[in-house]
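Question thread 4412

I'm putting together a teaching handout and wanted feedback from people who do this every day. The idea is simple: show students a protein as raw sequence, then show them the structure tokens that encode its fold, then repeat with a second protein so they can compare. Below is the first pair exactly as I plan to print it.
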Amino acid sequence: MTLVAGVDTSTQACKVVVRDADSGRLVREGRAPHPDGTEVDPAAWAAALDTAVAQAGGLDDVAAVSVGGQQHGMVCLDEAGEVVRPALLWNDTRSAGAARDLVDDLGGGEAGRRAWAEAVGLVPVASFTVTKLRWLAEHEPANAERTAAVCLPHDWLTWVLAGSPGFGALVTDRGDASGTGYWSAATGEYRPDLLERAFGRTPVVPRVLGPAEAGGTTPGGALLGPGSGDNAAAALGLAAEPGDVVVSIGTSGVVSMVSTTPVADPSGTVAGFADATGNFLPLIATLNAARVLDATARLLGVSHDRLSRLAQSAPPGAGGLVFVPYLEGERTPDRPTSTGALHGLTLRTAEPAYLARAAVEGLLCGLADGLDAVAAGGTPVRRVFLVGGGARSSAVRALAPAVLGVPVLVPPAGEYVADGAARQAAWVLAGGDTPPEWSRAGTELREADPLPAVRERYAEVREMTADRI
């Protein structure tokens, strides 16, 4: 049996899976936590990898390994390959002002946003690496001057697995490069002019590998895959195909679609990422997802299981009661100062079941708005993969196909980023034009007649309350 390994170096933890290269069967796995915070010394990632690998039985018998990981983080290296400062993570917002300045640099307003979208498929926001580099140049000039190379978390960990052999061995893939703000998914090329505009000069950046191109070997002789960002790796782990949408319901909501065409959205709502197979992965994020269920359960004083039962006992549309769940502001649509809104409360709907139903429908309608946004690029929606902690809700699973209006697949809980990295490692090992077919037993198919009236009513209330939330 030939074994491959996949690593997920996420914000919270490092996960390692070891799988059979032919069948995808899980052989063993390990996990270790990462430190909290929005900036982290990358050495902590290497230490967590060592712990997770040891827990997973080591890599001595593994033929290939790939790393998936959190996107956008800025890892700066000096001429000797030493880390210059703790890595700024995707969720570090101190570069929000730098994002605005970069848009202004290309004309400001709609013209600036359009220029960035046409150049790299993205409009700068604080999460993207390009904005962090601008921040570093402005606020820590000594560290900026010391920086000789810039890479992303998965790039750096791949380099560490290779033995840190020099900057020529720094590699990345299309999926993660597309989230930097200085690489174009549409052209497949870096934009050194934008990198220099942000940073004042052009440090070394990783070479972008093809989807199944080896990125060297470990000291033990295992092939290294190119790896990818977390969303692209998860799509690969789920075997998502063009027209498939991955909806992840975690602390935030993420909606991404595998597409055969690049996307450039000048509004900045949709990020025009690439995927890990040679296609594209337009993506949106919502600020309100699983915590909408947490808040509603807390408000009603019930468990999540009870919340699901209540929601499913009420009629579709919750009798006209609509919950616009912008409890933390919202990013899609862009309403950062908004609050939640409850509309349609009557003597009839002043019942726990109606509120529970409205909360689940509101959560799903918000994600459906995101689905519309990624589908606006022209690729028809085929089906939705529903993953993340919120997908454990039986009400979410039951109501999703009717609200989203397409068939919904609910795969069993798993480490899909690490699984995608492992599948990529098997692909690098086998070669060929397509990744290996691995069985995904236990996936649940949910279908239902669409309920457009639910979304129409939600949209009516969403716009009615827009100027008051």
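The second pair follows. I'd like the answer to focus on this one:
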Amino acid sequence: MTTRTRFAPSPTGYMHIGNLRTALYEYLIAKAQGGEFILRIEDTDQKRYVEGATDIIYATLKRVQMLWDEGPDIGGPVGPYVQSERKPIYKEYADKLVELGGAHYCFCKDMSDEKDENAPIVKFDDPCKHISLDEAKKRIAAGEPYVVRQNINKKGTSVFEDMVYGKIEIDYDELDEGVLLKTDGLPTYNFANVIDDHLMGITHVVRGNEYISSTPKYNLIYEAFGWEPPVYVHVPPVMKDAQHKLSKRNGDASFQDLVAKGYLPEAILNYIALLGWNPGTEQEIFSIDELKQVFTAERLNKSPAIFDGDKLKWMNGVYIRALSLDEFHKQALPYYKDLPASVNFKFLSSVLQPRVETLGEIPAEIDFIKKMPEYPLSLYQNKKMKTDEAIAKRALELSLNALKDVSDWSNEALFETLKTVAANEGYKNGQILYPVRVALSGKETTPGGATELAVILGKAETLKRLQDALNIL
């Protein structure tokens, strides 16, 4: 049997990190076995629908190279792949389930579907469960509003297997007879995912472990229809800390937020793969193709994973340094848009690439290029470099005179020039180079040394800043 998995997000906004991790595990389970990865849009909760969110889902998956084999945009043999377009299918199967005794029509006003699906369970003895099927059909024919509600007729314990948690047992007495089909004819998640997974031939279902308690209800539906349930893979949540889940509602970063902060999509995907999965080796850096080769669901963890921003930043730095200079330059260019045209942009990229861990760090590293900041003269005093204001003034005078005559404005030539100045005047290299670096940047720490800054700024701007610094001194 071909392995088929599905990613079934709701179009409610940006791509949450936990959702992207679920998609990744679904994708890897399928592709590791040469199977098929299906994209399905679960938009039956119209109150939470966000315009444009489906496009974000498409763009995110494409950006991390998780391409789907079937889906709303490319079609497939078991469509439609958008739940709101499958409304007649759910009505058909809801009616069948009632006929099979797995559900009943409910007319109770106070138990309508207007409540939040995520509201706490309120168990009750539904009087409509005792209405005969003939009477219920007459009331429906007369136009009376209704929902289809599941029957929980079993006693004892539901037992099922999960690839992460192993054997799970849940008492049927703990289950509520929830709504399967709402008054508007749209299904709840609990019904739609069962029907769709079966009709789409889904073999493995990955979802959060908060759905473990509902799995017996899904299995009762499968059982009523005589269908084989899929393989269940319940994963623990991604946590912000030991007590709190990572949540967009709490202001935690989505995939789009992280990209906007300068994280590379490949690094984000690599990092979240390890949030709950252990490769069994010391290797931490994996491309999507490498993950497809080594991933097994058996190595998924039972314990929640803590989102470690420092670890992600480190990993992103590894990815940045692995880029070719041309690719890094291309990624960095948007951050240079306000800089003067005289700047040596390609050289700037070569200086920044080994230094930054995220592209978002670039603006703070290069702010002095756009505008020379005001700085205290005390910055020229440096014990390590053995400089003070008097030495700095002399160093800048010598450097300015020497650099005026330099025609080869390369880092190597500029460094040799200033090194020669230091040797001829009896200074250490740092006593010349440090004041020049301060004069060109107004900062104690910079993305490069004095001569690298000079190359970045260009000859005219370098000489101007040295003269301005002398005037201040």
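Top answer:
Good format. For the second protein you could add a caption like this: The chain has 18 helices and eleven strands. Confidence is low (pLDDT under 50) at residues 112-117.
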